[in-house]
């Protein structure tokens, strides 16, 4: 997308191979679950929505690299998180979820999980993602999407006694190989315009700290 939309350097064959391997590994990772639930329309809709979400996430990430955002990187990150939270709240109100919420039914474990997601997942994790987005190529940034499912599967096996099959291990190996291919490929030289834009908009990440 960065090459077609923003006229950046064309990805090398090595990066394209890495992206293809990573995508193939993800398909192999979830194919067993999809086969079991192939009769469910909800599963099919879920896959389509997740695919669309990944596309729009990538498009938004690429747009933010060149958009004129607040000078303060912390302010930019805060606005994006607040807007996302407000939209999720609006969807919850429209769909009737707010009326079904009962605070007394929320366990302490759920509250701790929510606290972790707010501080580690949203504040620390998203800030790190934005920083990497400004410092690395889109191909390297995308590797998180390949690694996350592998980490989730192994954490499920380690903490929740979920089944770990040979197919899962093979998919994990393929995904990790794709990440190695992408990350070990020399980064293309950035244009002067891109460098100036990044320095002006995101100097706050270096000066303010996170």
UniProtKB/TrEMBL annotation:
Keyword Transmembrane helix: yes
Chain ranges passing through the membrane: 43-62, 74-94, 114-132, 139-158, 164-183
Cleaved signal peptide residues: none
Taxonomic source organism: bioreactor metagenome
Compartment(s): Membrane
Chief localisation class: membrane
Membrane topology: Multi-pass membrane protein
Pfam families: EamA
Protein's recorded name: Putative inner membrane transporter YedA
Keyword field: Membrane, Transmembrane, Transmembrane helix
Family annotation (InterPro entries): AA-Vitamin_Transporters, EamA_dom, EmrE-like
A GO cellular-component term linked to this record: membrane
Upper classification of the organism: unclassified sequences, metagenomes, ecological metagenomes
Annotated EamA domain residues: 45-183
């Amino acid at each position: 997308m960065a090459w077609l939309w923003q006229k950046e350097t064309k990805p090398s064959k090595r990066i394209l191979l890495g992206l293809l391997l990573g995508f193939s590994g993800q398909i192999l990772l979830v194919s067993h679950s999809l086969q079991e639930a192939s009769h469910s329309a909800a599963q099919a809709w879920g896959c389509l929505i997740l695919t669309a979400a990944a596309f729009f996430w990538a498009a938004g990430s690429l747009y933010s690299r060149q958009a004129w955002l607040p000078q303060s990187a912390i302010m930019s990150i805060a606005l994006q998180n607040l807007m996302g939270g407000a939209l999720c709240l609006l969807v919850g109100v429209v769909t009737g979820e707010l009326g079904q919420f009962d605070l007394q039914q929320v366990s302490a474990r759920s509250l701790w999980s929510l606290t972790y997601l707010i501080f580690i997942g949203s504040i620390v994790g998203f800030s790190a993602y934005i920083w990497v987005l400004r410092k690395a190529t889109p191909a390297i940034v995308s590797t998180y999407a390949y690694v996350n499912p592998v980490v989730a599967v192994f954490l499920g096996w380690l903490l929740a006694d979920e089944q770990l099959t040979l197919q899962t291990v093979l998919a994990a190996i393929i995904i990790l190989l794709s990440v190695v291919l992408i990350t070990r490929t020399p980064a293309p030289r950035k244009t002067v315009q891109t460098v100036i834009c990044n320095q002006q908009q995101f100097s706050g990440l270096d000066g303010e700290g996170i």
